[in-house]
Amino acid sequence: VLVAAPLGKHPLQHRWALWFFKNDKSKTWQANLRLVTKFSTVEDFWALYSHIQLASKLTSGCDYSLFKDGIEPMWEDNRNKCGGRWLITLAKQQRHTELDHFWLETLLCLIGESFGEYSSEVCGAVINIRAKGDKIAVWTCEAEDRDGVTHIGRVYKERLGLSSKVVIGYQAHADTATKSGSLTKNKFVV
Amino acid sequence: EKKRYDREFLLGFQFIFASM
């Protein structure tokens, strides 16, 4: 559904919601996850982006998530539960060299609908700031759709400017949920 | 009509709003 925008602004195909997660062990996971705001125009995206902390400046344990309005940034959401994620894992030193660039490119891919006809399969993206290594992931809604998932992966890898020697993997949420992190198998790679 | 924007178009708006 095309969201109507105020006169003079450039409407996005979708309204997007930015979420922030801050790890407070005294609270439940859900209580630590907060909706920051929603936007539906190019102008409002930049107004938001320029007023929030860069991902590289967040403390460990924090996440940003950008999801289409109506989809919550968790496996359990109906639009996510049959899906998975293209996962970018970064070395510690990349926080200061590439993390913010990769995250901004990810956001631009999402709001600009960069995946062509398969953009409708995109649910959102998540950046995890962690001491052991940061992660960025693009979440899609259907892990069994090989054509859609691999198209999104190829375009995403190209947009990040990753070398052809770098391999990125797609993991189904159903597999991630039942295995500990590094043991999750890749369903697809590009 | 689908609203698609390439990265250069989107980036063109960045510094207008960064200064507001």
Distance between the termini of chain A: 31 Å
If helices are DSSP runs of H or I spanning 4 or more residues, what is the number of helices of chain B?
2
Structural class of chain A: alpha+beta
Shape of chain A: globular
Whole-number mean pLDDT of chain B: 84
Low-confidence stretches of chain B: none
Tell me the strand order in the biggest sheet of chain A. 2-1-3-5-6-4-7-8
Describe this structure in words.
The complex is a heterodimer of chains A (190) and B (20). Chain A is α+β, with helices and mostly antiparallel strands. Chain A is built from five helices and eight strands. Chain A has an eight-stranded antiparallel β-sheet. In chain A, strand 5 and strand 6 form a beta hairpin. The two termini of chain A are 31 Å apart. The relative contact order of chain A is 0.15. The mean pLDDT of chain A is 94. Chain B is mainly α. Chain B is elongated, with a radius of gyration of 10 Å. The chains are: A alpha+beta (190), B mainly alpha (20). Chains A and B meet through strand 1, helix 2 and helix 3 of A and helix 1 and helix 2 of B.
Provide a concise account of the structure shown.
The complex is a heterodimer of chains A (about 190) and B (about 20). By secondary structure, chain A is an alpha+beta fold.
Write the layout of secondary structure elements.
The complex is a heterodimer of chains A (190) and B (20).
Chain A: E1 11-21, H1 29-32, E2 33-41, H2 42-49, E3 63-68, E4 84-89, H3 99-111, E5 122-128, E6 135-140, H4 146-160, E7 169-172, H5 173-178, E8 188-189
Antiparallel strand pairs in A: 1-2, 1-3, 3-5, 4-6, 4-7, 5-6, 7-8
Chain B: H1 7-11, H2 14-18
What would the keywords be for this entry?
heterodimer; A: 190 residues; alpha+beta; eight-stranded antiparallel β-sheet; 24% helix; globular; B: 20 residues; mainly alpha; 2 helices
